[in-house]
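ok so i was messing around last nite and threw this chain in just to see what happens. nothing serious, just curious
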Amino acid sequence: MHSLRHSSRIGLVVAAVLVVIGLLAACGKRRANEVGADGLTKVRFQTDWFPQPEHGGYYQALAKGYYAEEGLAVEIIPGGPNAQVMTGVATGRAHLGMTNGDDVIVAASRGVPLKMVAAEMQRDAQGILYHAGNPIRSLQDLEGKTIMAGAGSVWLQVLREKYGIKFNLRPLIGDLTRFIQDQSFVQQCFVTNEPFFLRQRGVDVGALLIAHPGYEAYRVIFASDGYLATNPEVVRRFVRASLRGWTDYLTGDPGPANALLKQLRPDLPEEFFAFSIQAMKDHQLVLGDPARGEKMGQLTRARLETQLKLLRELRLLERPLAVDDVARLDLLPPEAR
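result:
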């Protein structure tokens, strides 16, 4: 279970990133890209949480040799509660990482040299978890409720400031005991995760995706400005192989990736893999919604402009930004543009 994955401690994270960047600049230490004896360029990719099906496309690309076909030797660095993905990428400990698109935009506004290069998901998998006997049909149904969620989450500010929804907030903890005991309880979740584990425990639950046309943050692959300046072709090849891996994982046989994931996470039950994959399909998270012109990996200038405008209105940006300040759209393969 990983609700804590996106408690969105943006301010604290950005401050930590800037401190570490300053220290590295003073020391003059950044790890350079390397080419192994096999001629493959080494790439370190940092995920946001422990290995799981929501990372399946990357592991599929690794297992089926898609990265190697692009001349890359990719190391997937697992995350966790204190992964600090943006810090790792900004300081060169990792070459690329994954996180919520909001976080990259806010970090860029505060001087952290990061840019998105592709969408891992067309919309974030964060959702509202509720008991089936106390259904939440829309965000407006949260009026007057008590919500357990990450205090700095952008979506909470969207509820308050854009929609005028009043609610009580409890700090998010990584335990479902309170939710199980209180039929009226509502909390932040990932639609690909917590519902499965609660149903396994006999709790009848539903989950509402937070993302909607007025607020749809991408989940993104991102890199530092410095790495993009010196290795654009490496990034292009990494993105191309990753999107190929995701297509294969969600539309073909996910077995190769799942075999790797099970080695790394023997604690995950077999049924969870099928649940998470189906949730990604049902919510059109990765493959996108063809009726809306969405494509896997796609970042559109229009949607990023909408996101920038919303974050400005919420007073989360410390300086004006344009799309080109936060994203490199030219590194996507033609079919994702």
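not much to say yet. Residues 3-123+216-336 form a domain with the D-Maltodextrin-Binding Protein; domain 2 fold (CATH 3.40.190.10).
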